[in-house]
Design a protein that fits this description.
Blueprint (H helix, E strand, L loop, with lengths): L5 E2 L6 E2 L8 H40 L1
Bound molecules: zinc ion.
Length: 64
């Protein structure tokens, strides 16, 4: 049986359960990736907000 372990979130190397990544290099890569994901998410939210504003505008205009 294999001991409980995790895999590096970046390269997949087996690591101790309390670790998230295997090395400083992978940690840096993971932070970079998270930053990119966060930026993408912010853009998606912004586009979504614009759509809601346009939808509200159309709805309100339709009622008048
Ligand atoms: Zn790694």
């Amino acid at each position: 049986m294999t001991k409980p372990h995790r895999h590096c979130a970046v390269c997949g190397t087996p690591i101790p359960p309390k670790e998230t990544v295997c090395s400083d290099k992978c940690e840096k890569l993971m932070i970079d990736r998270q930053r990119k994901v966060m930026r993408t998410r912010r853009i998606i939210y912004a586009v979504f907000a614009v759509f809601i504003i346009i939808w509200l505008y159309i709805m309100l205009r339709g009622q008048i």
